[in-house]
Amino acid sequence: MTTNRLLWALAVISVFMVVEVVGGVLSGSLALLADATHMLTDALALALAVSAQFFAVRPPDSRLHYGYRRAQVLAAFVNGIFLAFLLFWIVSEAVQRFVNPVEVNAPLMFGVAVAGLVANIVAFFILHRRDERDLNMRGAMLHVIGDLLGSVAAIVAAIVISMTGWLQIDPILSILVAVLIGVSAIRLVRETGFILLEGAPQSINVVELAAGIIDASPLIKEVHDIRISQITPDQPRLTMHACVDSAADAAPALEAAKAFLGKKYKIRNSTIQVEVGEDCPDRAFKDEEQLAPAANANQSIASGSAAGGAAVLAASD
Ligand SMILES: [Zn+2]
Fold first, then answer.
1. What is the CA(222)–ligand 1 centre distance, in A?
2. Structure pTM?
3. Which residue in 3, 210, 240, 258 has the most C-beta neighbors within 10 A?
4. What is the CATH number of domain 206-316?
C-alpha cells in the first residue's frame, strides 16, 4: 500500500465525515452522526497506517530501544477508548430521542447519507485495486459491507421518515450502527491492551515452542523463564534461559536455537541466557520478587518431558 493512496482515502473519508457531522446537526438525524463516527474509525485507522510509514524511519535511540514502533499500538488503544465514549454518547442520545422524538429533515438527511455512501465506495476503490490479489478477500468484503452499512442505515431511516413520518427509526438504526462499531472498538482495546501488557501472541504455544527448541538444538537440556511479548503484532520478542552441559556447547546450542526461532516462529528478536549445569543464577532474585508468571515461566521443560509440560499448562488453564 503506497502512502499516496492511503492519504487520498484518508482525505475522502475525512471530508465526508465532516459533511456527515454538519448534515447530522442541520437535519437533526442521529443516524448520520452514528455513521460519521464510523467514518472516524476508518479515518483513524488510515491515519495510523499513514503514520506507520513515518514512524518506521525514526530510528531507535539509547533510551527508546524500539523507536516509535509501539506508538502505533498505544495510539490504537487510545482510539478505541475514545470511540467507546463517542458510541456511549450516541446510544444515550438515541434512548432520549426514542422517548422524545426530534424533528428530522428527511430530504437533507437522505442527500447527506447518499454522499456518505459514495465516499465509502470511492475510498474502497482507492484502497483496493482490482489488479491486486487480495489474500483475504472475504475479510475485505466483510469490512466493506460494514463500511456501507452505516450509510445504508441512514438512507433507510430517511426514506422511512419521509414516507411514514415515523421518527423513532432514526434512533433505532443509530443504536444498531453504534453497537456494530462498538464491537470492533472493544476488540481493538482488548487486543492492543494485551500487547501493551506484554502479552504473548495468540499464535504461539509456549510449551510447543520449548519442546521445539530442545528438539532443534539437542545440546540444550532444559529451558525455563520463557517470556514472549510483542513489540508490534508482527514483531514478537522472546527472552529465555537455556541450560547446557558444558561451556563449549553454548555457541552451537545458541545458534541452533536462534535458527529454529527465526524459521518456525519468525522470532528475530531474542535474548537467550545460556546456563551451564542445572543452577539458575537468577533463582535468588526470582524468590525475592516472585516475578515468575503462572503459565509458562515456572515450569522447566527438559528434554523428553514436553508432554509433562503440556499437562502442567493444561492444568493451569
Ligand atoms: Zn535460569
1. 10
2. 0.74
3. 210
4. 3.30.70.1350
For residue 284, the CA-to-ligand 1 centroid distance in Å is 10
Residues whose CB falls within 8 Å of the CB of residue 273, separated by 6 or more in sequence, listed in order: 225, 239, 240, 241, 242, 282
- pLDDT, one tens digit per residue, over 257-288 is 999 999 999 999 999 999 998 888 888 777 66
Write out the residues surrounding ion ligand 1, Cβ under 5 A. Answer: 241, 280
- Structural domain boundaries of the chain? 3-196, 206-316
Enter the C-alpha cell of residue 192.
492492543
Ligand 1: distance of its center to the CA of 200 in Å? 20
Q: Checking phi first, is residue 102 left (phi over 0); if not, alpha (psi -120 to 50) or beta?
A: beta
How much distance in Å is there from the Cα of 145 to the middle of ligand 1? Answer: 51
In CATH terms, the fold of domain 3-196 is Alpha-lytic protease prodomain-like (1.20.1510)
Compute the average pLDDT of residues 233-261: 94
Instruction: Specify whether the CB–CB gap between 222 and 257 falls below 8 A.
Output: no
Query: How far is the centre of ligand 1, averaged over its atoms, from the C-alpha of 246 (Å)?
Result: 15
152 Cα–ligand 1 center, Å: 59
